[in-house]
Amino acid sequence: MEKVLRAAVLRRYTTGQQSWDENVSTALTALNIVLRMEPSLKHTFRVRSFYNDKIKAPLGNMPLEAWQGYFQSVRPVLNGLIVNIDISTGVMFKPGNLVETCVEFFSGYRRREEANKWLKAQSIPVMQRRRLQTFLFGVKVEAQTVAGKKKMVTIHKLTERDAASTMFTPTGGSQTSVAQYCAQANQQVQLPNIICIQTPKGAVIPLERCYIVPGQLSRAELTPDATRAMVEFATKKPDQRLSAIKTGIQVLAYGQSRYVRDFGLDIKTGSLPMDNPARVINPPDLRYGQGSKQATIRPKDGAWNLVDKKFTKPMPLGTWMVVIFLPPNRFSSNEAKETIIGLIKACETVGMQVPEKQPLFVYKNPQDIVDKLRSTESERKTIPTFIVCILPDGSNADLYTAVKHCGDIKRGVATQCLRVGKCRGAKAQYWANVALKINAKLGGVNVIPDPSSAPIISDPKQPTIVMGADVMHPAPGSQTPSYAAVGGSEMIKDLRTMAKDLLMAYMVYRRDVENIKTLPKRLIFFRDGVSEGEFQRVLDQELPLLQDACKDAGMNPPPKITFVIVGKRHHMRGFGKNDKDKDFRSGNLLPGTVVDQGVTNPVEFDFYLYGHGGILGTSKPMHCNDFGFSADAIQALAYTLCYTYARTTRSVSIPTPVYYAHIVCSRAKTHYDPQGTASSVVSGGTQTREETLDSHRGQYRPVHEAQAKRMYFMVSNDLLRMS
């Protein structure tokens, strides 16, 4: 099937004479294909990113490595087209013998001697074999045949039996085992008792005879150690990133591409990076609570501190306790008492009342955590309103998930997890950060924007509700569902119900707590989790659902809705031209930098906003596509909301409601019983995907009603990665 693409379509679109449609989308897709043809013949690639092994690094304790690559994309702007270039990081399978790969895979979770045992067919647990099978599915290996030749094959699955007991009948021969067949050809199998691979055609090959070829992308879920290594490798200062991008021009080789020439394209690379106007908007004033030495402050460079400040609405700690999931010889009672003293002092400093100065602290084994916490409550003769849990250092995702499932889902008790290495001998700054999270979890408010800095949401004559929504999709190969959160599929399937529940809760609060009966007149909806090609489809489908939710909640007349799509999964990066445009410490653009011309959409209103001051690496702006307020008003509101994130005294990269929705999505695992089957389902089982999704839906448990109206999801960044 052939289709004629007319350049006039793009000319009309980039000059604002027509809106986005299928013809525009197809024309841009064609141009992107033309640009990627030449590099795709020379480099490992995934869609619009290309990788080589010139710059690479191992990824912690997994048989993977990170490769630096380059991203490119043709983007329409007013009166023309630009090529967006950025560096990209790909995760590759580490080349080498397949036995070593499998041992290293298990070593990421177990000690090496245990990993060796797990490859034996008689001792490998079924779930671990399936996990390894999911990890290796589709990987190409160079297999040594019994004839001494090398053959490229694809791993389809892993056998349940070993080479010594896997039987087959060769062409023209009698039934024999894989190990015997190799031995008859003087190709002795050195490890006959371990599992084998099976190809799509059914051939069974011992692991030791397989070699993973280099340059294969992996989409496996990374362990915490591998994640840290990945972040460290990918993090680059602005000047380093810009230098790498310029190097990418030679790698992408537009001038040498016959496809680019044959299409008659002329890509000007001499002016990289392109000059573009920007401006910096002022940060909001923030208001702290009664008793603060300075009640209203203005942050500088996207940051401030808690010195001499009281929370806007501090909550009492009430009845609380400390559960230590380490033996006393690894965290002594004296260290526990110092932890309690540090935490109490920090809470009282910011205005939180702590009537119980000597809470119970107990040592518990990580096993059967729900029973342990229940027994601890019995020992205390009362149900605590708050529990501090001291966790071991290292990879403790299962323990963390169990704690959160127990507290947030089963018992309805707020919990605060602390890593032993962080809280042992911690300074006041650490405990102040912990107090930020605890107060929010207990229903408190740490800080609010001064009404003068947020007129859109502060006008009593125009009551306004702000909502944030996100969707988080499972890792490739996983059969788990996508999770949506409204703070609140590219589409949120149950948006109408989720939004209605929030709107009704909001109105009940205004009526019963604030004694205000006026209905909201405006609803500002920040939506994340949308790819750029889906903007219009999401708007067309979800805006009517929001309107229906308002009707369902009895909001008559309904509020005016402003729908703002927030994106972070783009590759637009800005670099300051002069020192005055940059943060002197990090080299990043100043927080509050707005770009709303030059590289923006030629038809729709959108803008790039740097909401935070990057500490490490290069700051990435949020990309907002707005339907509603004026440019200045929505930009100011979006930036102000970057300063209301409860667990930090720095501005964040996206508006807080969206950030909260993202965290709620990321904590989906805690809604399942850690001892159940849903949390351990992986590819390779006998269930169909739909059966697996039904199983997940059936085992999903909502937040306990005692936690539902609190910000139970406040966690530190390292614990969020661990979860």
Automatic annotation (TrEMBL):
Residues 676-696 are annotated as: Disordered. It holds the Pfam family Piwi. PROSITE patterns: PIWI. Residues 676-687 have a biased composition (Polar residues). Residues 386-673 form the Piwi domain. InterPro entries: ArgoL1, Argonaute_Mid_dom, PAZ_dom, PAZ_dom_sf, Piwi, Piwi_ago-like, RNaseH-like_sf, RNaseH_sf. GO terms for molecular function: RNA binding. It comes from the Eukaryota. This is Ribonuclease H-like domain-containing protein.
